[in-house]
Amino acid sequence: MSDPATPDEQQRVALAVSTVIFALRPHPTTRRLAVHLPLVRRIRAPHQGRWALPGGPLGASEGLGAAASRTLGETTRLRPRYLEQLYAFGGPDRAPSAAERTVSIVYWAMVRPEEADAGVAGVNVQWFLADELPELAFDHNLIVEYALWRLRNKLEYSRIAAAFLGETFTLAELRGVHEAVLQRPLDPANFRRQMEASGRLVPTDEFRTGGRHRPARLFRHDESIHLADNGPLTRA
Amino acid sequence: MSDPATPDEQQRVALAVSTVIFALRPHPTTRRLAVHLPLVRRIRAPHQGRWALPGGPLGASEGLGAAASRTLGETTRLRPRYLEQLYAFGGPDRAPSAAERTVSIVYWAMVRPEEADAGVAGVNVQWFLADELPELAFDHNLIVEYALWRLRNKLEYSRIAAAFLGETFTLAELRGVHEAVLQRPLDPANFRRQMEASGRLVPTDEFRTGGRHRPARLFRHDESIHLADNGPLTRA
Known about the structure:
The structure is a homodimer of 236-residue chains.
Chain A: E1 11-26, E2 33-41, E3 51-52, E4 55-57, H1 64-76, E5 84-89, E6 102-111, H2 113-118, E7 125-129, H3 140-154, H4 171-182, H5 188-198, E8 201-208, E9 216-221, H6 232-235
Parallel strand pairs in A: 1-6
Antiparallel strand pairs in A: 1-2, 1-4, 2-3, 2-7, 5-6, 8-9
Domain Nudix hydrolase (chains A, B): 14-152
Protein name (chains A, B): NUDIX domain-containing protein
Pfam families (chains A, B): NUDIX, WHD_NrtR
C-alpha cells in the first residue's frame, strides 16, 4: 500500500451528454395521456438511420449540465426549466461499433404539454411513446427503460408529478399524471386520501370551473419540497 | 435542423472513478457513533500530500462499477457488498491544476462496523470523520458534502440505514444509526411510531438479550425493498 492510486490516473474516453425528456401527450389511438419522449434520427454511422436520445459533445469549457441543456436545445428546441443528472452509462460493450470507448452522462427532465408543443418539429426529430419504442441506437433503449423505472419509483416519494403540471392543478389532473406514468387507473377516493396523507399538497382558494363538472378546487405543491434539489451542488 | 448532433460526437476527457464509503464508528472524543469515511493520501502532484477519495483508473475493458470496486479494494482493502452510482462530477474548473479535463464518476456505499474494521490500515489510508474533514484534493470536499446530503435525505424514504446494520437489529440500534447520520437525538417513542408507520420493518421472533436492559425484539427490513435497486440496470 505504498502507492495508493488516486483519481488522477485515468483512462481517456470519449464523453457524450444525452437527455431523456418526458412529456405527457395523448396516445395516438386511445387519446389517453401517455409518457412520450423526443428522439433524433441519426444521419451518420454508426447506427445511421436509427433514432437516438438528443445529445451531443461536451464543450471544452462547459459543465455537464450546461452541455445537456445546450445540445437538447439545438436538436429539439426544448428548454426545460431544470435538468437533473440521471446516470452515467459507461460499460465497455455499450457501443461496440464506435471507434473508441464512449461514456454517456445522461440527464433527464419532465416538461409540460405547452412546453412540449413549442419544440420538436422536423423530419429528424419526433415524439415517441416511451413504452413503444423502436430499436434505438447504442444502448438507448436501456437508458429509456431505466429512466421510466426511476420516474415510476420517484412518483411515490417526491413531487416529481408537478413537473408535468402548471403551478396549480386539480386532484383529478394530478391523478391523471399518476395514471399516465403508472399506466393503470387509480381509484379517485383512494388517491385523494393518499395525497392528503402525504402532506405534499397545499389547497388554494381557487377553483377550476367550466365544462360538465362542478368546480374543482385547485392545489399547489408544498414549495419547501424542491422539484430538483441537488443540495450542496446547487451552490457549486 | 438538418444535422442534429447525436451522442457520438464527443469531447475526449480523462476519466476517473472514485468512491465514498460511509461507516459508523465511535467519535474519538464523544465515543458516540458518527459517520466516517476512508481517505487516501496523495503521493504525487497535483495536490501531493492532501487526502483524497479512494479511486483510480478505469480499466480498458472494465465497467464503471467494477472499476470503483477494484480501485477501492486496492487502496483500502474494503469490499462492500454493493456499490451504487452517486453522481458524475465534470465541471470544467474542478481540477484546474490537472493537465487535462477530468470527469469523475463517483460511487458510494455503506459498510458495517465489522467490515470497516477489516480494511483501511496504513499510514496513507485512514478513516476520517465525515463532518470534520481537512481540505481535500480537487473538489472532494464538495463530493463528500453531496454524499452526506444524499445519505441524510435518503434515510427518510428508503431502507438505506440497514446498510449500516446486520440482518436483524433492535429499534434502539436502528435509532442509533439515524441519530448518527442526522447528528441529533431522536425521541424513542416518536421513532418507534414512525418506523411502525413506514411499513418497512418486519418483527422477528427473536430478542437481543444481555447487558443491563430487558430483552429487546429484533426486527429485519422488508426484503421486498431493495437496498440498492437499479431496476433495469441490474439485468444489464
